[in-house]
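Task: complex structure prediction.
Instruction: return structure tokens for all chains below.
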Amino acid sequence: MTYTDNIKEALAEYVIRLADDRMILSHRLSELCGHGPILEEDIAITNISLDLLGQAKFYYEKVAELSGEEVSADDWVFFRDEREYWNVLLVEQANEDFAHTIVKQLFFDVFEILFYGELIKSKDEDLRAIAEKSIKETKYHLRHSHDWMLKLGGGTEESNNRLREAVELLWMYTGELFYSDEIDSLLVAEGLVPDTSKFRDEYYKTINKMLVESELDEMDPNAWMQSGGREGKHTEFLGHILATLQYLPRSMPDAQW
Amino acid sequence: MTTENKDTQWPLWEVFLQVKSGRPYGHVGSLHAADAEQALQNARDVYTRRQEGTAIWVVPADSITASTPEDMGPFFDPANDKVYRHPTFYKIPKGVNVDVH
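Output:
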């Protein structure tokens, strides 16, 4: 498909956002590799991390194709600074404890299901193909995080408390998932990307239903929401993530696996 | 006889995989999980990530009744000298797909 220059430019920026969300969440999950609460869960979380990493790679490659530059996924990931990352703030939040890890994942997974359900109708065949592949992975991710919500919420007093604390802390980062600016409007009008405002109500309805099932209180979708990630203004966490993630390739740029 | 249970992990489940539709399920290993749904998910993660199967059974390990080594003689030996129990006297027609396990 051929695009005019302004569409191409907008689409490249949009796709970097998608890539960065998955890249940073994948990295957060990978931090738990070897630290999972039990061997089987360690493997589950690492698998999800790898799924997201794979999705991120597809998106970075798509950006390279759109920009026509010889930029690899590695270049995007390792040689950009904090202010040039456009991921939503939700995905960079600390793992803290297992409840936080699961709640963060659930908030992202429910969005993903709805998002990919629309992206498979994109007029761009690459995005369509990525969506078709990713939606299967995401269904599994949601099954995993949802099951854990029920277990932690209905488990002990302590697990329920920790789950509630995680929900209350992370809630204000859900609003940014529906961030929309002129890039979104332009691409929505072209039929290339989903209009996320169309499924915002469904998102919060689904999440609230899951919270109640997990013996927690419903949360307010119209509460004050934190944003900034899409403009490169991040919480304290992203800098630390990038320091770990980028140290090796920046000190030894020619290092190879 | 009671023994102190030092295993603080979740209950043990045995995992059976069906390689493709219509084929018998085969035992592939075991894992720990808090309940059946989690056992299925863990089995998927541990045993089927490289397309090893199309369907999974998980069974609580303590639901399996197994023969013991002492059973070996009475259970299996007598078959050896009863040649008529083996279908070796028949010719298999061409085109019949024999599945030997």
